[in-house]
Amino acid sequence: QSTVPGRMHACGHDGHTAMLMGAARVLNANKAQLSHDVLLIFQPAEEGPDLGGARIMLKDLENLGMASQIRYIYAQHLTTEFETGNISLKYGSLMASTDEFTIEIIGKGGHA
User: Fold this and answer.
1) pTM score, two decimals?
2) Does residue 50 sit in helix, strand or coil?
3) CA separation (Å) from 18 to 2, 78, 94?
4) Which tens digits make up the pLDDT trace of 43-75?
5) Whole-number Cα distances in Å, 43 to 4, 23, 101, 105
6) What is d(CA 79, CA 95) in angstroms, rounded to the nearest whole number?
7) Is 48 in a helix, a strand, or coil?
8) DSSP strands (E only) in the chain
């Protein structure tokens, strides 16, 4: 929530932050029942392979000596395909692709 009434920054990263902080709150409230440590992480700059993403995140975890301790990764993402209040689950990969292409436009100037 913005500190300025009636204003917000409606970026998907805000939703990701809210989801991870919500998960942290629930996990912390139930930590006595957990049989393993839980590491909460953000995938940096997932929008492109040269910006960040899982490869860079995993390399950082390897450099910190933490990658070998990870047994499972549960990922969350946002989509507008489902009604508010619904959660969609799938075993395996989902929304796990970055596609890039280059186009050349020949013609008179304009905005694209």
Assistant:
1) 0.59
2) coil
3) 13, 11, 20
4) 776 666 566 677 788 888 999 999 898 888 877
5) 28, 15, 23, 33
6) 9
7) coil
8) none
